[in-house]
Write a structure and sequence with these properties.
binds zinc ion; mainly beta; 2 domains
Length: 105
């Protein structure tokens, strides 16, 4: 898993304490093989007032989830799946769903 996952994709957490939850990818760190997912693995941090948070207080922020713990959810068939690739003439790569075979872009 991991190849081809992009910001904005919907994924399912397949293992760990957030197992079974779905969310949208907020960021991808390919080098670390980690992603952050909206509403998943939320960490609460206390902070002092600063420029961004004038009041200070508690900030909720999504913590990283390892790519091996997630599965891509196909927007066409809504099933957790693996991503395939189709290479067009000219070399453009498109992602495809291995379940329904739909091209995803
Ligand atoms: Zn599909």
């Amino acid at each position: 898993m991991g190849l081809g996952i992009r910001k904005g994709d919907i994924v399912l957490v397949a293992t760990g304490k957030n197992k079974g939850k779905k969310g949208r990818i907020l960021s991808v760190s390919p080098a670390a093989e980690k992603v952050t997912i909206e509403g998943i693995n939320v960490i609460k941090r206390h902070t002092k007032p600063n420029k961004k948070y004038a009041q200070g207080g508690i900030i909720e922020k999504e913590g990283p989830v390892h790519m091996s713990n997630i599965m891509f959810v196909c927007p066409k068939c809504s099933k957790p799946t693996r991503l395939g690739n189709t290479v067009l003439e000219g070399g453009k790569k498109l992602r495809t769903c291995k379940k329904c075979r739909e091209v995803l872009e």
